[in-house]
Design brief:
Elements: H1 2-46, H2 58-62, H3 74-87, H4 94-120, H5 126-135, H6 138-142, H7 160-181, H8 192-217
Helix pairs in contact: 1-3, 1-5, 3-4, 4-7, 4-8
Length: 220
């Protein structure tokens, strides 16, 4: 009887410690995401004049609305999905996780392979690199421990969920923002020919991340 009580107490203590560790890690990521969103807003505003260069003339286009852009970009959309994931356990379902994972993979892999090589050859300050690194990497890494939970949900039929979430961003978030502000950041989405090319790149990167992960998880 005494051994049973001790074993139950030990199990309860371990469970309590695991829960506390999970909550502590979750709150760390919430603080990390929120902190870098605020830091990013600050530096965006600080550089508003520097961003006002040809061919984009960003500040001429957006004026004092420039910091608001961070609420509408695909990178921050992906990061906000992760923020909601860490805040609200009700989002812990396969549809949400698969979509969040793929969106974060697109922004991370796409930035370092497509965007950064172009930015690297221009004037690029250290704090820009720090902020971009924080936006494109750590948040994706933070959700990797949950891969095992959803490993059986990585299937071709479920690839539709990331497509739904990405389409929602494009048509419900970015397009209205563009038509209100003429923001030049994603002009490729407006011209039909360039839009198809850009969307194809995003689709290929997303497919590579999703299907590649699906293949790797079969060996775990």
């Amino acid at each position: 009887m005494l051994l049973d009580i001790l074993n139950n107490n030990l199990c309860n203590n371990n469970l309590s410690n695991n829960i506390q560790h999970y909550d502590y890690s979750r709150y760390k990521m919430i603080n990390f995401i929120v902190s870098f969103r605020l830091i990013s807003l600050y530096f965006t505003w600080k550089q508003r004049k520097e961003l006002n260069k040809n061919p984009m003339n960003t500040y001429d286009q957006l004026g004092d609305w420039l910091p608001m852009r961070s609420l509408f970009t695909y990178t921050n959309y992906s990061n906000f999905l992760a923020l909601i994931w860490f805040i609200n356990k009700k989002t812990h379902c396969k549809e949400y996780y698969l979509s969040m994972y793929t969106c974060l993979f697109i922004t991370t892999f796409g930035f370092w392979t497509v965007v950064y090589p172009k930015m690297r050859i221009t004037s690029y300050r250290l704090y820009n690199l720090i902020i971009e690194t924080a936006n494109h990497g750590p948040i994706l890494l933070s959700i990797l421990p949950d891969l095992y939970t959803y490993k059986n949900d990585f299937s071709i039929i479920n690839f539709k969920y990331p497509i739904y979430y990405s389409s929602f961003w494009l048509f419900a978030i970015w397009m209205p923002w563009y038509y209100m502000t003429n923001d030049p950041l994603y002009k490729d989405f407006i011209n039909l020919e360039n839009r198809m090319s850009t969307l194809l790149k995003m689709f290929l990167i997303g497919s590579f991340g999703f299907l590649g992960t699906m293949g790797l998880l079969k060996f775990i």
